[in-house]
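HOLO CASE FILE
Compound: 3-phosphoglyceric acid
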Amino acid sequence: MTLTEILKLAPVVPVLIIEDEAQAVPLARALTAGGLYALEVTLRTPVALECIRRIAGEVEGAVVGAGTVTTASARQACAEAGARFAVSPGLIEGETAEGPVPLLPGIATATELMSGLRAGFSHFKLFPANVVGGVGALKAFASPFPQASFCPTGGVDAKNAPDYLALSNVICVGGSWVAPGDAVKAGDWARITKLATEAAGLHA
Ligand code: 3PG
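Model generated. Tokens follow.
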């Protein structure tokens, strides 16, 4: 699957912080049951790679990716664990669109966007979206950078997501609101499926 195809699977890519590897499979099942298929497991906990491995092996319909990928070696490691895409909060020096797994790099400025385009990327995470200009910044990027499309992430929620999704250069949005930490901790998978169902139905 290409990165474009992955990002088009649903309007929202859940950003997940998983503390306990036993939560990985039920959480991924809860999200896919609601219609969210591309799942970003952030490499912020010691069990993240194992969670990616389990979701990749056990959850039909899920397309698992890694988030918070900040080095080339992390990109390699998540590919080996079964990640189908990688997301970074920024540009990783020396990394290009070619690599062991498709990469969605983060950018916050026009200069970073230009560096990313030079490295062969055409999809970017605007991060942290609500802080670095949000909808206004993306509107401003559309005319000078028609070849770039975005997954704004950071401060995006069910309320403001439609404003982002209405933009022609937004392919999807990312956010953690569909898998709140307390619901994951409590194993409240029904609540997460409900949030995912609502998110999957979002549009401009
Ligand atoms: C993150 O890095 O945690 C993501 O950007 C998610 O941000 P959010 O918690 O504001 O959705």
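CASE NOTES: The pocket of 3-phosphoglyceric acid is lined by residues 15, 127, 153-156, 175-177 (CB under 6 Å). The longest strand covers residues 12-16.
CLOSED: yes
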